[in-house]
Amino acid sequence: MSGFTRVKKTAAAVAATAAAAATALIAAPAATAAPQPIVGGTTTTASAYPFMMQITDASQDQFCGGTLVSPTKVVTAAHCMVGETTSSVRVVGGRTYLNGTDGTVARVSRIWIHPGYRSVTRGDDVAVLTLSSSMPYGTASYVSPSDTSVYAAGATARVVGWGTTSSGGSSSNQLRTATVPTVSDTSCGSSYGTRYVRSDMVCAGYASGGVDTCQGDSGGPLLIGGRLAGITSWGDGCAAAGSPGVYTRLTTFSAEVTAQVSG
Ligand code: ARG
């Protein structure tokens, strides 16, 4: 998606503890969750999430996340790759900070965008990048087509990214992570109506909001049980009550991803 404002991180927001997040799941505080880092979460490192990749422009300015699933293959969102070419993008691994110069920069030799992709609210928001050189980092495994039970409502999902820490706010210079519960199809359908395409999407977030992915997190992982199960795709605002984050339902695209990863 174009027009990500890369803004330096401002005041350190109040860190949400895992305990606070767990409490929120049981008894949601009425109105105001304090602004919490992704939105709601904690800082982490590339070492903790070695498969977490920055998708950047040629100047190494990050605009999306991606997940390393083999030394030369990265899963990301289709909407991140619209308008991009193999010469316009880079993949950066092993770099915790947006302003870092460490890690490994790879060029991209091929961009596969799901052929059905039209817009995030119509589904098919998945892309696979082939790198010109191997990343020396651990890879993530991803769900199989039959693993649909991972999305059972209330399952703990982990999100990771450098996105903004509030709706309309600044990107995080340091990598962040948070956990959010998956949301039932019925509930997400109530939130988003026909924009929620059950076959292609899964929602995650607290009923009260407060913890979510946000702009710049797109393309990054939704991990369930340590495996890649979703891709950060869209939402109405970020972390708002009644508007959970929407992720690509990877089981639906697992076979197509595997075809790209093996091919
Ligand atoms: N579309 C955004 C991106 O490109 C991700 C938005 C996720 N929004 C949300 N409320 N979870 O970075």
From TrEMBL:
Organism: Streptomyces haneummycinicus
Highest taxon above the source species: Bacteria
Gene3D superfamilies linked to this entry: Trypsin-like serine proteases (2.40.10.10)
One Pfam family this sequence matches: Trypsin
Domain (Peptidase S1): residue spans on this chain: 38-262
GO biological process terms held by the UniProt record: proteolysis
Keywords: Disulfide bond, Hydrolase, Protease, Serine protease, Signal
PANTHER family, per the entry: ACROSIN-RELATED, HYALIN
Signal sequence, start to end: 1-33
This protein's name: Serine protease
GO MF, one annotated term: serine-type endopeptidase activity
Stored SMART domains: Tryp_SPc
InterPro entries documented for this protein: Peptidase_S1_PA, Peptidase_S1_PA_chymotrypsin, Peptidase_S1A, Trypsin_dom, TRYPSIN_HIS, TRYPSIN_SER
UniProt keyword RNA-binding present: no
